[in-house]
Amino acid sequence: MKVTFYKYQGTGNDFVMIDNRQEFFPKENQELIAQLCDRRFGVGADGLILIENDEAEDFKMVYFNADGKEGSMCGNGGRCSVAFANFLGIIGEKTSFSAVDGLHNATISNEIVSLQMLDVSEIKEKSNALFLDTGSPHHVQLIHGLANYDVAKEGARLRYGIYGKSGSNINFVEEKPDDVFAVRTYERGVEDETLSCGTGVTAVALAMHKLGKTQKEHVKIEAEGGNLEVTFEVENGIYINVHLIGATKGVFKGEIEC
Predict the structure, then answer these.
(1) Count of CB atoms within 10 A of residue 144's CB?
(2) What is the set of active-site residues?
(3) What H or E segment, with its residue span, contains residue 75?
(4) What is the three-class DSSP state of 163?
(5) What is the mean pLDDT of residues 195-219?
(6) DSSP reduced 3-state for 215
(7) How far is Cα 37 from Cα 17, in angstroms, rounded to an integer?
(8) 169 pairs with which residues across the strands?
(9) Cα–Cα distance between 172 and 155 in angstroms, integer?
(10) Residue 91 and which of 37, 41, 160, 209 are 20 to 30 A apart at CA?
(11) Helix 75-88 and helix 198-210, axial crossing angle in degrees, nearest 10
(12) What are 74-118's pLDDT values in tens digits?
């Protein structure tokens, strides 16, 4: 079977994108998906995304981690899905689509995608970190010396040592001047550091506001792969109208024999 795919990235978080509206792709084949995501023996990506038809919304996003297993919500993957759907002519500048965690609204203009994330009603405080779910579970921990921090080692230690097999993504954060926060993320499913994580960036912005590190409801985040912004409102202690905003890019198109 010859598969046409597209490669997209959002702040360095990269994905194999496939138009599966004809439902030809064998998405139960975890080995195939993992092979396509392999950076030495396949296309290479942090995950694979299928764009499918949806009865109620413009399209459906189906996301798989690099290990081949269907994953929880991916923020940058959602932004890239909007860009890909726009390229395919499925949507214009505004859209609503379904994902594993429910309905998402989004806009796109000049490759900048603003993606509405789910409301967050609970942020749990741990001894030296916060834990919250922004479509995927996230541990957020402030540290010093982020640039030289061993994210892969410490991320794996926390991911397995505290959160077990089901796990959590692990975000290490450092404060910078002017209400800016730098973040590096260890992602479950990839089982390594990635250049950016959309749900992680969202979690960091909300966690820093919760901790009182910023009073702003428009937070700028510096990920390893680029800059993102998160806007939100707080109503009765609940974070609502949360948006993840940043650039996306179609990198290339290809065919691969599967």
Answers:
(1) 7
(2) 74, 197
(3) helix 75-88
(4) coil
(5) 97
(6) coil
(7) 11
(8) 138
(9) 8
(10) 37
(11) 130
(12) 999 999 999 999 999 999 999 999 999 999 999 999 999 999 999
